[in-house]
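Need residues for this backbone.
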């Protein structure tokens, strides 16, 4: 395997970092229990940690999977970094929050040859890569094994950046993905057994997600775990446990996303988590993992909700945002942060920092 990626270095043991590492439970309790007005000092600490460890940069990602134009970005095309589903619209789990709806926005490629053809088109149209995803099997995995040789071709022949949304993985799939030289693996980390059963319809438990992370990391695959805030019908339930799991691993980056109610799902009319609650998770992620790149991902409610979430996330010390609001760009400017725009998946942030930082 290409050894261009190594596990991130552990934090330097300055006084502040030692306090954070030694008080994991206390940090989590404060982030989740304090009122918004009482969180101010923690937000300041998160922001300062981000500046200390990553400098004055913030990265904005526009992969082109949805239509997006602002005063600071004009759309260059839908195939800059599209999502591709290896199962089409098929998913066995039919999760409460998705019911296969998210797959409808992806390009179907249900055979290895179809995947190669889709990616040839992406390359010809000036795209730089793609997210390979798909619906889940009953065991929570995405059926990727037969696509491994095709993925390897995409990397070798087309020189595309390839990010894979894996679902649960075992050691053999992790090893195969490593051999295909993917640029990153994304996996949702669920911290509640009730959520795993009631929302994802999985006969599994928290340890399956913990083990999947270990398998990917053991193969030196840049691993980008996602925490889905409010995934339990809009309520905070397993987020603390998910953060505890992540803080014991060495992810290449962490992405925080939030429940976005979709039509034709059982959560269509569920109230999404408040921006402040999303901000709590972003803040706790920053404080628990001060040397890990932290992102606000593309899946989050729109409108004023998005404006407030983006604001809180920047103030908590996030390093990148997918599809940022106009207000996020203005806030970054007000804070004198240097903005970098990228037409690719935000999970590749690990490659956008100098090696000396990570």
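Answer:
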């Amino acid at each position: 395997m290409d050894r261009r990626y190594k596990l991130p270095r552990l934090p330097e043991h300055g006084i502040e970092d030692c306090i954070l590492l030694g008080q994991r439970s206390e940090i989590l309790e404060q982030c989740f229990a304090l009122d918004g007005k009482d969180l101010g000092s923690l937000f300041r600490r998160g922001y300062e940690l981000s500046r200390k460890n990553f400098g004055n940069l913030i990265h904005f990602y526009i992969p082109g999977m949805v239509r997006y134009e602002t005063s600071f970005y004009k759309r260059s095309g839908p195939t800059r970094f599209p999502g591709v589903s290896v199962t089409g619209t098929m998913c066995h789990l039919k999760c409460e929050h998705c019911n296969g709806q998210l797959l409808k926005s992806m390009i179907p490629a249900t055979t290895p040859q179809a995947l190669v053809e889709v990616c040839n088109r992406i390359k010809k149209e000036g795209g730089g890569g793609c997210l390979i995803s798909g619906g889940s099997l009953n065991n929570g995995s995405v059926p990727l094994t037969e696509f491994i040789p095709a993925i390897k071709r995409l990397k070798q022949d087309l020189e595309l950046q390839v990010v894979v949304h894996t679902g649960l993985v075992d050691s053999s799939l992790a090893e195969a993905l490593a051999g295909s030289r993917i640029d990153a693996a994304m996996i949702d980390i669920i911290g509640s057994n009730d959520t795993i059963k009631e929302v994802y319809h999985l006969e599994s438990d928290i340890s399956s997600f913990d083990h999947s992370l270990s398998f990917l990391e053991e193969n030196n695959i840049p691993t980008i775990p996602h925490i889905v805030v409010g995934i339990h019908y809009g309520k905070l339930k397993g987020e603390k446990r998910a953060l505890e799991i992540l803080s014991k691993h060495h992810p290449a980056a962490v992405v925080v996303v939030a429940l976005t109610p979709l039509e034709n799902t059982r959560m269509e009319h569920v109230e999404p988590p408040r921006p402040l609650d999303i901000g709590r998770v972003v803040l706790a992620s920053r404080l628990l993992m001060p040397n890990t790149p932290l992102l606000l991902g593309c899946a989050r409610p729109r409108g004023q909700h998005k404006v407030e979430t983006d604001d809180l996330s920047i103030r908590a010390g996030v390093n990148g945002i997918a599809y940022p609001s106009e207000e996020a760009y203005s806030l970054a400017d007000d804070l004198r942060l240097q903005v970098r725009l990228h037409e690719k998946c935000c999970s590749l942030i690990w490659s956008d920092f100098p090696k000396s930082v990570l």
